[in-house]
Amino acid sequence: MTTAVTRNGTTRKGLSAGLRPTSKVLPEHARAHNRALVLQHLFHAGPTSRADLARATSLTRVTISDLVAVLIAEGLVEELGIRPGQRVGKPAILVGMRTSAYQIVSVDLTDAAVMRGAVLSLTGDLVVRESLAIDGRTGTELVDLLTRFARRLIAAATQPVLGVGIGSPGVIDAAGRVIEAPNRRWFDLGLAEELSESLALPVHVANDANIAALGEFTFGGASGDGLLVLTVGEGVGAGIMLDGARVRGHSDAAGELGHVTVVDGGEPCACGRSGCLETILSEPALRRAVDGLDPDATDAALASVGRLLGVALAPVVSALNLAEVLLSGPADLLDGPLREQALETVRQRTMPAISAELELRMASLDEDVVLAGAAVLVLSGQLGVS
Amino acid sequence: MTTAVTRNGTTRKGLSAGLRPTSKVLPEHARAHNRALVLQHLFHAGPTSRADLARATSLTRVTISDLVAVLIAEGLVEELGIRPGQRVGKPAILVGMRTSAYQIVSVDLTDAAVMRGAVLSLTGDLVVRESLAIDGRTGTELVDLLTRFARRLIAAATQPVLGVGIGSPGVIDAAGRVIEAPNRRWFDLGLAEELSESLALPVHVANDANIAALGEFTFGGASGDGLLVLTVGEGVGAGIMLDGARVRGHSDAAGELGHVTVVDGGEPCACGRSGCLETILSEPALRRAVDGLDPDATDAALASVGRLLGVALAPVVSALNLAEVLLSGPADLLDGPLREQALETVRQRTMPAISAELELRMASLDEDVVLAGAAVLVLSGQLGVS
DNA sequence: GCGCTTAGTAAAGGAGGTCTACTAACTAAC
DNA sequence: GTTAGTTAGTAGACCTCCTTTACTAAGCGC
Questions:
Q1: Domain containing B34: what range?
Q2: How remote is the C-alpha of B180 from its chain's centroid?
Q3: In the list A33, A175, B196, B377, which could disulfide-bond B25, CB 3.0-4.6 Å?
Q4: Would residue B304 be called left, alpha or beta, if left means φ above 0 and alpha means ψ between -120 and 50 degrees?
Q5: Do A149 and A133 lie in a common domain?
């Protein structure tokens, strides 16, 4: 008896993690990959000898020498002299990333009133910081203002600029096209492409909360895979990293945790519905909630918000088996009863196997997470490093 | 002013999707990838000419000819004669996967009382089906029984067996090691490795609910990325596909949605806590809930379960921006008020941008999903096809 | 028949990585 | 202080893989 289990003819996208082919791979892609591998190692582990790079990557010393020679010729890597310390054999020559070779320009558009920008070194150190009042501009005017602001930052850089990274609210696709950012009056706007043309530099654009997760992943204390970063500010956003990759979602809208209902019949939300997480967890909402309360009542109020956050997080943590949930935002409100109750609630509402290893703590980067994340966007886009 | 955004030296894993290097890539890996690309296309699109393969993969005709020649030599692919229909130019020779060249053996261990097994063709057609009572066996005894069962299935195959796929409850790592499957009394058991040795065949083992998602993704009607399959049986499990890859989770426990609390102070659960989704949504729980009720009351009872399911799903759907949620299990219970209310609840509790494109419907494969998924495990592991 | 188009193959070439073998430079031990 | 052993880095030959270019095969349309 032959029972058909069915079969259909749709073609699917994928990648090469579990060998799920998507598009052709050429030797030159292998080269680019291995090159990125070397940079990645130098970026995270610091100066390394060629021989150690070979061991770390499992490429041969010959290949590493060749790759390093190219990187040195490009000015991205430099020799740093003999490795100190005595040991047998020919002493190793350390090579390291020339972190001063390039700089990165980042812009954070999270705040509706003011755009924040920075020039960063390749290691994520903030070199210059600037900001500019938006004065209610939206749409094309805002693009113009952003372009001028970016130009000013590029001019402020003391080294050639590797690229420009921008974190914006809204739904943004992989190519940096803003599908919709209602508050900025941006709809189907090829922001990365436009800016890249007018600035004559690579420009990467992504959702602000999403790249906050990227920033924490690369520069923060995040220990590895399975990370969710919840950004609390005027609104509430989230970003998720799984298997070292940012989760984008089917229509590039992943991370929209702020508008999940957590209170039945709750307060009206800017999104038109009511009881959204954002109506209780955003910074303004929290300030209002604790305004004028005595310390005990404040703690109780924060804990009750924490509990609701925990209820919303539990299914996500459970479904994805996350390792870490980080809260980014005002520590005076978040890092206390709120956080503790959220963790406690998640533990109560998930299996021990899931919650045992879970950490829920404050993000280690401050208000500059989005700037850092935008820099990672550029690092990863231009050098394959993150 | 130079503000440090911090920097740490941890090394991270990743992959080559967004160019996030993890381990070296050689030309031969490119070759394997392109080879899989060809098979993938033939698998999903059916017989194709070399020239069309070249266009589909963007490899050159020369390379495709070469790859196809190898695949023909291996007996995986065969020429099927001239493409019918008249058009200008030399007529194309169709090549197709020799789906009869190999068969796959699948075992489904979801049921504690009986193991279900099958021999499938490469297209997922069930050729032979067998089952075997477990009689309360666990631990090593169960491994022995499973080995014998697998041998029997392998003997029943009418073609060489490509590999053995096994779906089991429990936490199972990428190498097919069962971290823990309490009901089977399996703890830290290298099941895939052991079986592979004793059967002298490639063996792939993964969580049953996880591979149900894989089965739906490949053989079912799932349209693309962002898929969650919820399996309802004795228990409740889930599997998630993102970007064409199965979500495994930090400690290989992704998909444990069955033990998320959905009823405060609800019924006790086998897991030791209470109010878990499984206490209301498992098949036994649903049968009990509707037992003896008149039709209207039945509908109301099912809808109320649907609502609670929707509450648990909303944060997951929102955070991941899923495209599809599929329910797999008894249609008489699931495919009605329960499903409708679940979808309605998710819509109410998430942003329109998230829920607008969301589909929540019944899975298209029947009780054989896990067997099909286990087959995909083998297909993907051995041929790179899924 | 002749021109045009499409399918498939052959040969040469370039890119990328490995293997083997070499030199350079140090430590340790007699 | 010489010799042996170890480690770092490089040179050259070789293999693999894909591409480019050029060719043959085989049909259609006039």
A1: 28-97
A2: 19
A3: A33
A4: alpha
A5: yes
Yes or no: say if A278 and A285 are a contact pair by the CB < 8 Å rule. yes
Interatomic CA–C1' length for residue B8 and nucleotide C26, angstroms: 32
Q: What is the pLDDT of residue B6?
A: 25
Alpha helices in chain B (DSSP H): 27-45, 50-57, 61-73, 139-156, 191-199, 208-219, 278-281, 283-290, 295-320, 331-334, 337-349, 352-355, 369-378
Residue B171 CA to residue B182 CA, distance in Å, equals 9
My answer on whether B76 and B107 are in the same domain is no
CA distance A183 to chain B (A): 15
What are the structure tokens assigned to A35, written together?
Answer: 């090159």
The residue-averaged pLDDT of B346-370 equals 93
Give the count of domains, chain A: 3
- Going from the C-alpha of B103 to that of each of A238, B48, B74, B160, the distances in angstroms are 44, 22, 15, 6
Give residue B184's identity as a one-letter amino acid code: R
Mean pLDDT across the stretch B291-319?
A: 97
B10 to chain A, closest Cα gap in Å: 6
Read off the pLDDT of residues A285-340 as tens digits, 9 standing for 90 and up.
Answer: 999 999 999 999 999 999 999 999 999 999 999 999 999 999 999 999 999 999 99
Q: How high is the pLDDT of residue A138? A: 95
Q: What are phi and psi of B231, to 5 degrees?
A: -100, 120
Tokens 């058991």 label which residue? B189
Q: Point out the residue nearest to D26 (C-alpha to C1').
A: B90
**Alpha carbon distances (Å) from B3 to A125, A327, B6, B65:** 6, 22, 9, 57
In whole angstroms, give the CA distance from residue B130 to residue B105. Answer: 11
In this structure, the answer to whether residues A191 and A252 fall within a common structural domain is no
What's the residue count for chain A? 386
Q: Which tokens in the block code for residue B270?
A: 């086998």
The pLDDT value given to residue A25? 80
CB of A62 under 7 A from strand C?
Answer: yes
A166: CATH: 3.30.420.40
Q: Is the pLDDT of residue B101 over 80?
A: yes
Please give the full DSSP string across A136-151, using - where no structure is assigned: T--HHHHHHHHHHHHH
